[in-house]
Design brief:
Number of helices: 29
Number of strands: 0
Radius of gyration: 29 Å
Structural class: mainly alpha
Length: 444
């Protein structure tokens, strides 16, 4: 937005209009005859010893930018807060307020800039954009994580943001700051990404690095070294990530019990024949057939992988296990028996294989599949939380179900309390489960 442009403020119909109305409401008769801000009297009001009077001046929708700049140095936090919120405040004053001693003032500047930054990056003059970047960089170093998070979230989609600022936010030890910063559409150097993985405060940060476009082999190796199952899944699904054959071989060695890795591994380019043969020995028949048909591996009669797949298929048909191997319930039972039906395995199926999710949660919770399905379709934060608890999973898993399955808005979600514990009592969660049982007809 151009500096000093006339943007409507908070005044509405019947508000008295402009500075005259604002001061009239604030001061009664004393301000009813107040002159416009262009007059000396209005400037005197901006110097009034009563901070409420000065705040009233700063809140006026038609306050001139030069007067707002003057009030940005006011000793009263309430006055500076009003200036920070004002859309006509000059960017130079915003920079002063971004360094303010009062955290509420800095947060207000961040809220305002975050709301404007995308349009500013497209439409405004080079001078105003340069000043805006100075404000953003000051806020990106703020002591308050909420302020840094606002900047990271608003800047992530703007490629012209400074790389150094976004890299610093990506290094943040608060995951809620680092995660949006790592979604930055511009460049973050591989050396920095390797360091971010090494010092990640949360596994989600490793996953955010793995999701970045065109990451190099060193970054991929760092993600694999982290050992985080979900981050490695994200890496394997990232078609633009460079993963060396040696690293693929290491992943394949660990892959048999981790079903979420099987399909992306089978579809990775540049698979060595040795890796493909190992995969064909433990993935589902459907994926083994996909390997067999890859032109670069086994799409010819008599190739080693073709022979192996045919042998597996014949053995499955002889024992009658082929169908069970492919079914969602069969896969869930196999994981359950092997002790690998963990949160990461189930989370990977959200939105893509809900039959597997239902089977897995039914096995873990010992609830009938129909009850599990009813809860998943309910959009009930309490019901989903109770289901996660009954399945022996964490509140983090319950939160992911609320976001990724129920698509609940932030205000409707339940979050963990101190220590990552469930926010509901055991009695309340049992009540939720009993309630959903009553919604499903009893089986004859």
């Amino acid at each position: 937005m151009p500096q000093g442009s006339g943007v409507p403020g908070n005044g509405g119909p019947g508000s008295g209009g402009g500075i005259r109305g604002a001061l009239s409401r604030l001061l009664g008769r004393r301000a009813a005859a107040a002159p416009t801000l262009a007059d000396d009297r209005a400037k005197q009001l901006a110097r009034d010893p009563d901070p409420a009077v000065r705040a009233g001046v700063a809140q006026a929708p038609d306050a001139p930018p030069e007067l707002l700049y003057f009030l940005a140095r006011d000793p009263s936090p309430a006055v500076r807060l009003a200036v920070a919120a004002h859309l006509r405040t000059p960017r130079q004053a915003d920079l002063l307020l971004a360094l303010d001693d009062d955290p509420a003032v800095r947060r207000q500047v961040a809220l305002k800039i975050a709301d404007q930054v995308e349009s500013l990056s497209r439409d405004d003059t080079a001078q105003l954009w340069t000043l805006t970047l100075s404000v953003l960089e000051a806020l990106a170093r703020d002591d308050l994580s909420q302020v840094r998070q606002l900047i990271a979230e608003s800047a992530r989609g703007i490629a012209k943001m400074p790389e150094r600022m976004m890299t610093a936010l990506g290094r943040d030890q608060i995951a809620e700051v680092a995660l949006p910063a790592l979604g930055f559409t511009g460049r973050i150097a591989d050396d920095d990404l390797v360091e971010i993985v090494a010092h990640a405060p949360d596994p989600r940060v490793v996953g955010a690095v793995a999701r970045r476009p065109a990451i190099g082999a060193r970054v991929s190796d760092a993600v694999v070294e982290s050992g985080d199952t979900m981050a490695i899944t994200i890496l394997l699904e990232n078609a633009s990530a460079e993963i060396t054959p040696q690293t693929i071989d290491r992943i394949v060695e660990q892959a048999p019990p981790i079903e979420a890795w099987h399909e992306p591994l089978v579809k990775r380019p540049n698979l060595s024949e040795a890796a493909a043969m190992k995969l064909a020995g433990f993935v589902t028949q459907k994926l083994a057939k996909f390997l067999q048909n890859r032109p670069d591996l086994g799409a010819r009669p008599g190739s080693p992988i073709t022979i192996l797949v045919q042998q597996r298929q014949a053995a499955a048909q002889a024992t009658g296990t082929a169908a069970a191997d492919e079914s969602p319930l069969g896969r869930a039972r196999r994981h359950y028996a092997a002790g690998t039906l963990g949160e990461d395995v189930v989370t990977q199926a959200f939105g893509t294989d809900m039959d597997f999710v239902i089977a897995a949660l039914s096995l873990r919770s010992r609830l009938p599949p129909a009850v599990v399905n009813k809860i998943l379709l309910s959009h009930s934060a309490k019901g989903l939380t109770a289901l996660a608890w009954k399945a022996g999973y964490t509140m983090r898993f319950a939160f992911q179900m609320q976001m990724l399955i129920a698509h609940l808005p932030p205000k409707a979600r339940l979050s963990a309390v101190a220590g990552g514990l469930f926010p509901l009592s055991v009695e309340e969660m049992e009540w939720q489960l009993d309630f959903f049982r009553t919604l499903v007809p009893a089986e004859p």
